[in-house]
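User: Good morning. I'm curious how glutathione would be positioned relative to this chain. Could you predict the structure with it bound?
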Amino acid sequence: MKLYGSLTSPYVRKARILVREKDLPCEFVVADAWAADSPVPALNPLGKVPVLALDNNDTLFDSPVIVEYLDALKAPALLPASGETRWNVLRWEALADGMLDAVVTRLLESRRPEAQQSADNLRRQEEKIARSLEYVARRLGSGPWLVSDRFTLADLVVAVALEYTDFRYPHDWRSRHPRLGQWLAGVSARPSFIETRPPGMEKK
Ligand SMILES: N[C@@H](CCC(=O)N[C@@H](CS)C(=O)NCC(=O)O)C(=O)O
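Assistant: Good morning! Here's the predicted structure, ligand included:
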């Protein structure tokens, strides 16, 4: 198996962390989806990373599908197979992916020439991020994990989204949500997070 993606993409990082957590035999191939000679459009018609190239020569995308596939290869499951805990984890993944979408959309908008930027779009994305931070902070218990009594895909994806927010939309959310900041420090100290930290992303 080969995982194609960039070093900075948080969607790719979700899969890279899972590969490291479960010690799976999967080669990481650095590929830039935006480059003119990118191999990505031939692997995924959407032209996006991550893409997982399977041993049968077919490919899988996007990140929720890839992490579910990789997780199913080896126990213990980070995504519970059934029941309420499964839906709880999937809800966290949807929230985290939506946060990433908002941070990416805001970043791309902010990189447009200033005269062409939409203040309304920037504000809408920032509101989504603020509401998501509130949502996580409100539901976070006193323990180290979001769902059940162990590290799951929920912790993985939410921590990736929070670290990516710090990376691409740095602002002081910690003074409003100090417990969330402490929780993130705990998860992001895991070797899988340290080893996949994008170049230029500082440890908070
Ligand atoms: N929903 C997708 C999002 C993937 C995505 O947007 N990846 C970005 C990199 S961060 C990309 O490849 N963008 C290239 C493009 O949009 O053309 C997933 O979860 O995999």
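The beta strands are 2-5, 27-30, 51-53, 59-60. The chain is about 50% helix and 5% strand.
Let me know if you'd like a different ligand tried.
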